[in-house]
Amino acid sequence: MMVNRRSIVEHPFGNLKQWIFGNGRFLSRQLKGTRAEMALAVQAYNLKRAIQVLGAQKLMALSKRLPNSPCVSQTDTH
After folding, report:
1. Binning pLDDT at 50, 70 and 90, where does residue 71 land?
2. 3-state SS string over the chain?
């Protein structure tokens, strides 16, 4: 069970390290900046995966249902 869990969990971290961080190191030197950098990297990874799984059109359609969505302009009041 641990081998299966490890293989599921390590895949996103391997992708983050390779794709987003490039060389696997943080650019920030302090903990506050490193936390922010990691949060942005995880958000980018999640968005990339959502686009791969759902497709860009469906993801935008779903995000338009959310309040304060950046996909809905201020003039789109129905």
Report:
1. low
2. CHHHHHHHHHHHHHHHHHHHCCCCCCCCCCHHHHHHHHHHHHHHHHHHHHHHHHCHHHHHHHHCCCCCCCCCCCCCCC
